[in-house]
Amino acid sequence: MKKIVLLVLLAGSVTATFAKKIKISVTDFQFVNKTVNAKVGDTIIWVWVKGMHTTTSTTIPAGATSWNKPIDVTHKRFTLILKKAGTYKYRCNFHFSIGMVGTINVTTSLAASLQSFDVSDAEAKSLLNWRTLSSQDVAYFSVQRSTDGDNFNEIARIHPDQSNQYKFTDNNNTSSKYVYYQVEMVDTKGNRELSEIKMAVQKTALPKLIANISPNPVNNPGHIMLQFNADKEGSMLVQLYNESGGFVAQTQMAAYQGLNNGHFHLGDLTPGIYYIVCTLDGTKEKHTIIVK
Q1: Burial of 141: CB neighbours in 10 Å, binned 0-12, 13-18, 19+
Q2: What is the three-class DSSP state of 146?
Q3: Helix (H) or strand (E) holding 17
Q4: What is the DSSP letter of 12?
Q5: Rounded to whole angstroms, how far apart are CA atoms 35 and 39?
């Protein structure tokens, strides 16, 4: 009986050792990171940075527990231990209509166990390296790429060998400054384990601050969503001017390394042509906005 108890305790200590704590920052109009990969037993921690928000589950795996928690100046953290594998979708109840949503992909650890996954960038290519504990029952590795960190497509399949050390070079042809990767390990029974999501910087990409503005034209009363690139954590200043150059309004958008999402509430404006000037870390861009 003592041996059985000891084995149970040891198994529990191993699980605790490998469980991770994954932080999601909650700031104005975005969860950072918007999409994360985790394992059963990991802990998700939403941490307030700015604004008044919620983290509210919308779709969860069967048997998992739903949640609806405020994240604001008086409720700065919410912690969730992941007990069921599957896809968890959640949102901010106040801002989901402008894209403040998130996804947690949860898998179990397979017998082969992904031990590490790293991505480094070079001229016009990304270098991927990963390691497994063994090759036991592994059918293949699916190498997947994304330009937004949310939607991934398979770009290669790698079959296992006895070295348990794997490399892949992606000579990608995307125009995005930031490229995201993950590795999905699939066993012979179809079970899967996901790596963390890692980002590479495209050194040959054209320097561009604003990736997308929508909607444009804008209806009254209006707002615009900005997708923008940031090389490091900071804040982007967004200023609105009318056609004759008169200042109308401005806002600050929180920036994190990679592709960001920001929201600018324009309110009621006279129909016509306007300009937004975006400034971040010494880079400034001017874009035309049409108000109908």
Answers
A1: buried
A2: strand
A3: helix 2-18
A4: H
A5: 14
The residue whose two tokens read 């300009």 is: 275
Residue 123 has pLDDT above 80, yes or no: no
Contact 104/124 with Cβ under 8 angstroms?
no
On the CB side of 31, CA atoms within 13 Å amount to 31
Stated length of the chain: 292
Chain segment 71-118, per-residue pLDDT in tens: 999 999 999 999 999 999 999 999 998 889 999 999 999 999 999 999
**Residue 289 contacts by C-beta under 8 Å, 6 or more apart in sequence?**
213, 216, 217, 218, 224, 240, 273, 274, 275, 276
Q: Using one digit for the tens of pLDDT, what is the confidence trace for 169-200?
A: 998 777 888 999 999 999 999 999 999 999 99
- Hey, what domains does the chain have and what are their CATH numbers? 19-105 (2.60.40.420), 109-205 (2.60.40.10), 210-291 (2.60.40.2550)
Torsion angles phi and psi, residue 9, rounded to 5 = -65, -40
Alpha carbon 60 to chain centroid, angstroms: 18
| H/E stretch holding 5 | helix 2-18
- The string over 158-193, giving b where at least 16 C-beta atoms fall within 10 Å of a residue's C-beta and e elsewhere, is bebeeebebebebebeeebbbbbbbbbbbbeeeebb
| Residue-by-residue DSSP string for 230-269 | ESSSEEEEEEEEETTS-EEEEEEEEE-SEEEEEEEEEES-
- Count the Cβ atoms, other than its own, within 10 Å of residue 220: 12
Geometric angle at alpha carbon 226, from 224 and 231, rounded to 5°: 160
Cβ count near 144 (within 10 Å): 19
